[in-house]
Amino acid sequence: MYNATPFSSLTQGAGNNSGCPKNDGFKYPLYSTIFSIVFVVGLITNVVAIYIFTCSLKLRNETTTYMMNLVVSDLLFVFTLPLRVFYFINQNWPFGSTLCKFSVSLFYTNMYGSILFLTCISVDRFLAIVHPFRSRALRTKRNARIVCICVWVLVLSGSLPTGFLLDTTSREKNNATYCFENFSSKQWKSHLSKVVIFIETVGFIIPLLLNLCCSIMVLQTLRRPQTISRGGKLNKTKILRMIIVHLFIFCFCFIPYNVNLVFYALVRTKTLQGCSVESVVRTIYPIALCIAVSNCCFDPIIYYFTSETIQNSIKRKSQIDRSFDVKFSEALQSETSSNLQCSLRNLKAKVFHNESSV
């Protein structure tokens, strides 16, 4: 279900007599190339992001909490990519069943963890813009940490069973081992179809609707004259650009794979039959998978556009601090000057008093 030849068992393996020709031979060089690029770019950008969040960024709020968890999710998956690249090049998994299951679990942890954490950022932005005063009690770092814990529990409860439910399979011809490929139709009907329903509903459809609804309501709020006069055109442009980038990355990375996954499950359970349907889904699957994996590289773009508001708040805070320092120094100078004048007057009075007594 995860990678390589998801439809190999349609033309070879248990219980398949479809006889449909295979047309996905391009997948191995495609996977090895794309995953290598994602490993290099994703590792560099996410390490830089985690350095900025932990070392450079002094002001932390609920949004940075969600982004930090998103970085951790991306890095966990990026670290497994060299094993996958080795598998794609050699078409053999020599690292054992446990490591295969773990890497597959991390793939789904990353994908649906990214979806849910991006949704948390979208909902947080919606509350901050549409309900800025009523949401103050909700938008706290403590509540954000609780939400992140719930997301991790939800994601792991879906990804771990997916990865550890089934075992690796082997090819008898050349004694090579697949990492999660040739599942039979029986396995799909009994286990995997239920997993697909769960992850598609909880991990994709509901978050997609939340992202769309929150973005639409934020855009409607920004169109109001009082919002423009209060925030200014510049802030409105930044928020609009942030929403567009957020939605584009979300839709570009996750919609192709998750839509294709539904058809994939229908074909594997033989709900949809026919070589033409099988050929189309089998061709789209590797491309959609590569696009989904690339979210590790696109997530730092979300950090950049979202952190603009954080940077602005830091600038405002520093400006307030500077103005306070200036006022304090002026007050101190004024107080020092008044004390000095008072001391001079006292000294002068004492001198005149002494002269009169003499």
TrEMBL record:
Organism ancestry: Eukaryota, Metazoa, Chordata, Craniata, Vertebrata
Compartment list: Membrane
Protein name, per record: Lysophosphatidic acid receptor 6a
Domain G-protein coupled receptors family 1 profile: 45-303
Protein family per UniProt: Belongs to the G-protein coupled receptor 1 family.
Biological process terms in GO annotation: adaptive immune response; adenylate cyclase-modulating G protein-coupled receptor signaling pathway; angiogenesis; phospholipase C-activating G protein-coupled receptor signaling pathway; positive regulation of Rho protein signal transduction
This protein's UniProt keywords: Adaptive immunity, Disulfide bond, G-protein coupled receptor, Glycoprotein, Immunity, Membrane, Receptor, Transducer, Transmembrane, Transmembrane helix
The UniProt record lists the keyword Transmembrane: yes
Membrane topology, from the record: Multi-pass membrane protein
One Pfam family from the record: 7tm_1
Annotated GO CC locations: plasma membrane
Membrane-traversing stretches: 31-54, 66-89, 111-133, 145-166, 195-219, 239-264, 284-306
Ribonucleoprotein recorded as keyword: no
UniProt-recorded Gene Ontology molecular function terms: lysophosphatidic acid receptor activity
